[in-house]
Predict the structure.
Amino acid sequence: MRKYIYNSRDVAAYFKYFSVPSHLEVSYMQYIFNFGNKVLAEPLTRDFESFKREVYRELYFLWANGFENEKADISKMTSDGQLSLICDQDCICLESYMKLICLHLIFSSNLPYINLNFTGLMTQLGIKCSVELYEENCRKVCESLQLEVFDSFGKPFDLSLGIPDELLRVRLNQEFKQSLDSRDFKEMLRSEQMNWLKDLKDKSFKLFGSIPARKKTTKSRKSSASTKNYRDQAYPVVNKSVQPKGTPKPTRDN
């Protein structure tokens, strides 16, 4: 089966669904752009600025269409009347969802797999078709997106034999994963941010100089009275005549 390559709508939908901060969007774009046609469609790999404009255009479309976060309806990811490229038309939501899962595995190279319940996913995505057709589309979409499926014990699972109502492990196949950058993108991003903050701090010191630490001038509010040991103080005992319980009251003689 033909291997699927991603477009600007897929990347923009990933940003929305996984709530990527706006100030990190360009870094994410640069990371996936560097993979070239192994991941992206050929026209998007020619110029980064053009690719960035396309992604921002799709971000606006998704926002206007109501696809804003992980709680949004997956069907809002596609335009009205859009044809599916991998699955049958009845399972286009499965195709859209699995694209997001695959992109998450690409951006999170340290994530070994994702647990999915394909049976429950059918209801969650609102797919209304026969079980046989749905199972066949699950097999097709995993094959086209270069995903491997394992059971909960880590043994290979053949989706052509049917889909159980249990969690299965989904991961990128080894050939595709090894063709990508082995470095952890999020660690690289964190390192770049730390270096940027360090450079900013150094520039601030050169411009303004170091700020001397203030000396503490306030006196201690610790009162000498707080050091008193009240246990050593004796308190007078008040003696009161208390009538014992059960003692009859004296009666008056008439």
